[in-house]
């Protein structure tokens, strides 16, 4: 259009053609523009809440799972917080009031380690620093990172009550956590037990299941002989006859270091066992096997051959069947030290199988959950202490005192120490090692230190899941009453709660909320005194958890209790207990919030973490879950589907993406991916997102330009006056409105953005804009069709900027304020009501048929262009035949307008398109070749009428 030549009389018609005009730039310039929008918003969240509350809007509560206050945000943070922002903004868009208070988890080992490093750099060991000084350094460190992360989240466009943020280290918060802990103490759900727990020697503390992750590990394996020393009368007399070698029960283990802690051997009552005599060994070996001809070994029949293969035994005889019940053995190290001179009984256990090993389980009750349970079930109560908190044998352990099971210092930190090889050497010396090897298997590691953990017997505090209070049953009932997105989350968390052990809540560290209670030294029971509890809570409220460690006991116990009678517990609470209490001090009891929350949203790993700890805490204190629904997302991988790692160099820094491309690009990526599964991100994927953003931005830009000068006087209100194409686009708006509302309501953001983007590229850019640009540019301003076009474009713009406001808020804000600079923030809007009369399935069916014909015509026009028959579509006058049903769809339509040609002929018949050249002169204004062309003006009849109307209005 811009190249329209002058007419014969010299007139230039450019100024009579309406061309889109807008200051909204084609290039987003988001890294520069977004901070300006953030500044203009101010405290947007507070403004939105104030507006919705004034409107009496329903309340929606999203409770924030706290990220850890340590380090810059990473791509996982960006995904998580962006999804939460989608929820918050979409709920505002749906007309609700939304309570969302961002929070931080501040206690725990990662910060302790950082502070220990800082003190070591200054030449001070942790034991040279007072607990008060150490805790203050941790508090300062966490506070600094809260400030950093808060600004990074804001830059991402996250709205929330940032001024009212919560942190688990705030004094009031620590007091609330102590108060929640007291509820468990005083209800009888808390107990102290001495049992094997997962212990991290590197971190020097017990760990709960949620703090464990499993990695492949290469471990030594050993087959060990326990000589049989006694049998009950129901065993054959020949079993222990002097003329035969002493039989031995063979066990198999991947933890040689636990052999000194052995107290029993477990067997399976339903397993068939046999007594086997070795008759021959493998020959031609580079070493001499430890087995000897004549050795008698007791094994599960199903596993005997595998054991013989490991021991290089070539020949054997099954002497007899053996019932292990009633047998007694000697410890395999008994010959080397009298400290191992005790009898080792055989215990029946349901945990024993004949799937692997020997059919017998070496039982060290201080180092295994099954071992502990079977030992106690058979009436044994003394649990040996073998390994100290630092992962070394206690000095009283014969032969091995002081040896490290796990290294906790230096370059070998987290590696297995000399204990394993030392035990194996002593077994060889004692003649009781039958075979050894190595195997790769899944082994528990601390999710923080990444170091292996061990099972270790130690006194700890637990919350009881079964029994009188039935916490497990309450939690399972609450799971069944909760909505899960995706639905599979229910089964996942349910299976975990069904099988989990009692909740281990004590930790032996410094930086955390204490188990602030006293224990009666005479009874071993916690003190139940409301006045004492109140004084503890009051002190923590005023001075933080430090008060518990620094104030004298008498300040809390008061005059009614003798401090000498009570032990002050100085363990700290499991950080999962901290975060599991957040509902109690963040949403409960606030006038502008409600309990329970409508939604908890975190990664799928939180089924065993925050979702579960919150569930157990709330069910234990309130009898139900603190949430109505739970939404989980997957993890972010690189473009190749591999886990991100700094060492691999495949990480994507969200701050870099924001600085280079803008937050809306990152947000658009989040909206497009299926967050319920693991997602991928990288340069190519982000480039695809940038391309999609450009198309979206160009759509919005075209609408802004096309609507330049549109006002209410121009708006067409009578639906009967709208042409068929406009009625179809209104139908699509009606259709999308329902889809968008439903998708936001079920938190399915992919089902918002994908249909809307497809609408922009398909229905709008490829169809509507292309067809209607002729009417928009060249029809007289007061024509009904042009008014209808601009009215529909206004409705499209109004809805696009609302629908996409939660997902790309910066761009939609820029678009809205470009057009309506005085209308307030786009974020404050609700989705406009869409009239029911816009639904028009007949037009939808019509345009589906039209589209099939249009595809054929477009193909033919493209071929004519390639063949140089025409220069452009306006040079063409196609003749189209198609089935009668398809031709009937064009009733009431101008086929030339649909085809973007100067004219067209339609007839029923076999599908075919013949492209003819339009033989009329070219209109100097609209470029169409029309039969009513005027030589004097150089215009077609439509343009002559439009120019006359424009001239008359000047």
* Helix segment tally: 28
What is the 3D shape? Answer: elongated
Biggest sheet architecture:
10 strands, mixed
Strand content: 15-25%
Q: Give the termini separation.
A: 22 Å
Short synopsis of the structure:
This protein is an alpha/beta fold. Helix content is 38%, strand content 17%. Strands 7, 8, 9, 10, 11, 12, 13, 14, 15 and 16 form a ten-stranded mixed beta sheet that branches. It has a five-stranded parallel beta sheet with strand order 2-1-24-25-18, sandwiched between helices. It has a four-stranded antiparallel beta sheet with strand order 6-5-17-19.
Task: Tell me the layout of helices and strands.
Elements: H1 30-41, H2 44-54, E1 59-63, H3 75-93, E2 97-99, E3 103-104, H4 109-121, H5 131-155, E4 166-167, H6 171-187, E5 190-200, E6 205-207, E7 212-230, E8 248-253, E9 264-267, E10 273-281, E11 296-300, H7 304-310, E12 313-322, E13 328-330, E14 343-348, E15 360-363, H8 369-377, H9 419-430, E16 433-446, E17 454-463, H10 471-480, E18 483-485, H11 488-499, E19 503-504, E20 506-507, E21 518-520, H12 530-543, H13 546-550, H14 553-557, E22 566-568, E23 572-573, H15 575-580, H16 582-586, E24 599-603, H17 610-622, E25 629-633, E26 636-637, H18 654-660, H19 663-672, E27 679-680, H20 683-706, H21 724-745, H22 750-778, H23 784-803, H24 809-819, H25 841-866, E28 876-882, H26 884-888, H27 895-899, E29 905-908, E30 912-917, H28 941-952
Parallel strand pairs: 1-2, 1-24, 3-4, 8-11, 9-14, 18-25, 24-25, 26-27, 28-29
Antiparallel strand pairs: 5-6, 5-17, 7-8, 7-13, 7-16, 9-15, 10-11, 10-12, 13-14, 17-19, 20-23, 21-22, 28-30
Helix pairs in contact: 1-24, 3-19, 4-5, 6-12, 10-11, 10-17, 18-19, 19-20, 20-22, 20-23, 20-24, 21-22, 21-23, 21-25, 22-23
């Amino acid at each position: 259009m811009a190249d329209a030549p002058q007419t014969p009389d010299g007139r230039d018609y450019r100024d009579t053609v309406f061309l889109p005009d807008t200051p909204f730039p084609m290039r987003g310039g988001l890294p520069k523009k977004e901070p300006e929008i953030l500044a203009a918003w101010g405290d947007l969240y507070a403004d939105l809440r104030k507006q919705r509350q004034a409107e009496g809007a329903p309340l929606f509560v999203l409770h924030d799972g706290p990220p850890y206050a340590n380090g810059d945000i990473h791509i996982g943070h960006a995904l998580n917080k962006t999804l939460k922002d989608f929820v918050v903004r979409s709920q505002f868009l749906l007309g609700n009031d939304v309570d969302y208070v961002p929070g931080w988890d501040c206690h725990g080992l990662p910060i302790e380690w950082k502070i220990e490093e800082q003190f070591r750099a200054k030449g001070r060991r942790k034991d040279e620093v007072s607990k008060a000084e150490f805790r203050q350094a941790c508090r300062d460190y966490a506070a600094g990172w809260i400030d950093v992360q808060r600004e990074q989240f804001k830059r991402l466009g996250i709205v929330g009550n940032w001024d009212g943020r919560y942190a688990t280290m705030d004094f009031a918060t620590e007091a609330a956590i102590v108060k929640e802990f007291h509820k468990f103490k005083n209800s009888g759900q808390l107990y102290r037990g001495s049992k094997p727990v997962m212990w991290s020697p590197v971190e020097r503390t017990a760990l709960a299941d949620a703090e464990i992750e499993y990695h492949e590990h290469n471990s030594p394996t050993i087959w060990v002989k326990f000589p049989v020393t006694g049998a009950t009368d129901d065993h054959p007399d020949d079993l222990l006859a002097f003329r035969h070698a002493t039989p031995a029960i063979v066990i198999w283990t991947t933890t040689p270091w636990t052999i000194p802690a052995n107290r029993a051997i477990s067997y399976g009552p339903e397993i068939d066992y046999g007594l086997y005599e070795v008759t021959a060994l493998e020959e031609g070996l580079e070493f001499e096997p430890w087995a000897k001809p004549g050795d008698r070994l007791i094994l599960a029949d199903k596993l005997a051959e595998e054991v013989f293969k490991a021991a290089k035994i070539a020949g054997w005889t099954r002497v007899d069947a053996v019932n292990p019940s009633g047998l007694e053995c000697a410890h395999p190290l008994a010959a080397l030290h009298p400290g191992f001179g005790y009898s080792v009984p055989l215990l029946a256990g349901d945990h024993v199988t004949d799937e692997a090993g020997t059919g017998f389980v070496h039982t060290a009750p201080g180092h295994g959950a099954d071992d502990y349970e079977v030992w106690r079930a058979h009436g044994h109560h003394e649990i040996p202490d073998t390994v100290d908190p630092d992962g070394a044998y206690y000095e009283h352990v014969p032969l091995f005192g002081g040896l490290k099971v796990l290294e906790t210092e230096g370059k070998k930190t987290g590696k297995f120490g000399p204990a394993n090889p030392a035990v194996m050497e002593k077994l060889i010396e004692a003649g009781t090692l039958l075979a050894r090897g190595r195997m790769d298997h899944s082994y528990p590691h601390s999710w923080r230190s990444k170091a292996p953990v061990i099972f270790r017997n130690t006194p700890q505090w637990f919350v009881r899941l079964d029994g009188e209070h039935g916490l497990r049953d309450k939690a399972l009932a609450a799971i069944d009453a909760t909505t899960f997105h995706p639905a599979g989350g229910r089964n996942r968390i349910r299976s975990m709660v069904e099988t989990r052990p009692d909740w281990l809540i004590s930790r032996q560290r410094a930086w955390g909320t204490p188990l602030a209670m006293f224990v009666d030294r005479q009874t071993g029971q916690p003190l139940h005194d409301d006045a004492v509890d109140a004084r503890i809570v009051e002190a923590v409220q005023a001075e933080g958890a430090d008060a518990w460690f620094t104030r004298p006991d008498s300040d809390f116990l008061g005059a009614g209790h003798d401090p000498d009678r009570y032990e002050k517990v100085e363990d700290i609470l499991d950080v999962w207990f901290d975060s599991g209490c957040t509902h109690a001090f963040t949403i409960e009891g606030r006038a502008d919030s409600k309990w329970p929350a409508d939604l908890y949203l975190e990664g799928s790993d939180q089924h065993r973490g925050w979702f579960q700890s919150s569930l157990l805490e709330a069910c234990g204190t309130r009898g139900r879950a603190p949430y109505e629904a739970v939404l989980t997302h997957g993890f972010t991988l690189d473009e190749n589907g591999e886990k991100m790692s700094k060492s691999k160099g495949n990480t994507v820094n969200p701050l870099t993406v924001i600085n280079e491309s803008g937050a809306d690009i990152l947000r658009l990526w989040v909206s497009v991916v299926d967050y319920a599964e693991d997602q991928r991100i990288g340069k190519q994927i982000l480039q695809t997102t940038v391309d999609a953003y450009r198309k979206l931005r160009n759509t919005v830009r075209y609408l802004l330009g096309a609507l330049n000068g549109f006002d209410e006087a121009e708006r067409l209100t009578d639906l009967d006056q709208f042409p068929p194409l406009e009625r179809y686009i209104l139908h699509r708006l009606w259709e999308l409105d329902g889809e968008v509302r439903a998708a936001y309501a079920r938190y399915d953001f992919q089902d918002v953005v994908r249909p809307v983007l497809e609408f922009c590229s398909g229905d709008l850019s490829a169809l509507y804009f292309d067809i209607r640009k002729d009417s928009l540019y060249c029809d007289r301003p007061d024509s009904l069709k042009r008014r209808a076009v601009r009215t529909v474009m206004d409705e499209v713009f109004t809805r696009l900027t609302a629908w996409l406001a939660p997902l790309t808020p910066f761009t939609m804000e820029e678009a809205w304020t470009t057009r309506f600079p005085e209308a307030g923030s786009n974020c404050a809007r609700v989705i406009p009501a869409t009239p029911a009369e816009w639904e028009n399935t007949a037009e939808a069916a019509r345009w589906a048929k039209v589209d099939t014909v249009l595809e054929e015509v477009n193909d033919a026009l493209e071929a004519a262009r390639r063949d140089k028959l025409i220069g452009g579509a306006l040079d063409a006058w196609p003749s189209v035949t198609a089935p009668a049903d398809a031709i009937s769809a064009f009733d009431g339509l101008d086929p030339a307008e649909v085809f973007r040609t100067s004219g067209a002929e339609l007839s029923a018949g076999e599908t075919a398109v013949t492209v003819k050249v339009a033989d009329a002169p070219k209109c100097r204004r609209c470029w169409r070749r029309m039969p009513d062309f005027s030589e004097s003006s150089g215009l077609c009849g439509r343009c002559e009428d439009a120019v006359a109307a424009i001239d008359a209005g000047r």
